Amino acid sequence: MNIINxxxxxxxxxxxxxxxxxxxxxxxxxNFLIDSFFKNLNLENYKLSQNTGRSFNTNLEKNxxxxxxxxxxxxxxxxxxxxxxxxxxxxxxxxxxxTDLFSTTEGNTSLANYHEMYESGFLGTHVDxxxxxxxxxxxxxNIILYLSxxxxxxxxxxxxxxxxxxxxxxxxxxxxxxxxxxxxxTPFSFHGVTEIKKSPIKRSTIYVxxxxxxxxxxxxxxxxxxxxxxxxxxTFILPNLKxxxxxxxxxxxxxxxxHKVKAFFS
Length: 266
Hints:
Blueprint: H1 15-20, E1 26-29, H2 35-38, E2 54-56, E3 61-66, H3 74-83, H4 86-96, E4 101-103, E5 114-127, E6 139-146, E7 159-162, E8 169-173, E9 180-184, E10 191-193, E11 203-212, E12 235-236, H5 250-265
Antiparallel strand pairs: 1-9, 2-3, 3-5, 4-11, 5-10, 5-11, 5-12, 6-9, 6-11, 7-8, 7-10
């Protein structure tokens, strides 16, 4: 069963829009899944045990929970499987021009594909892990699929695309049900989620990342920052520089310094 809207069978038609988008290449694809499939997703009755995933509640990741794939419903697993198929990877190549794309062989041991956020939740601006967990090869693309069918934009939960330093919001992408966002992942692709206001339902998304065997994956893009890849952990940007010197934020400081040093010498 092909659950992706046939409009997106050939993403090459969106390639120019993807490559020209700012602050870094991205594309927004509405009605991504076919209507008959999306309408049958029933997330509100989909009860997950909080003991089987991972909860986040810090000053940079608030009221967020991520899954383990083995507990997901059949339909959610079907979406994740579809986004990891060879055919879809070839479609992503047509969109991006990035060669030797592959999905992680790590499964969901380290990386979670299903995410939930709740009222007052938010995600600070950050850049994700740089490398595939086993091979260490470059992390080059992300896709986020918005699942909550009755979500209203006034509740917040928009995706933030920030500048190369992670401090200035350059674009907000509203959470629209059945919308997919594909964006280039580089060491400077800072992004996050705006605060969720009074929401009666959870903000549910599927997130999948992609990798490349090409260690110079960005050379064909016209970027506003260095076209380099280097290894780094998930790195958050704290709201104020003075926040880095609080004892509770020492781990953020170390990661930020490591990122800055590698960026400078790359």
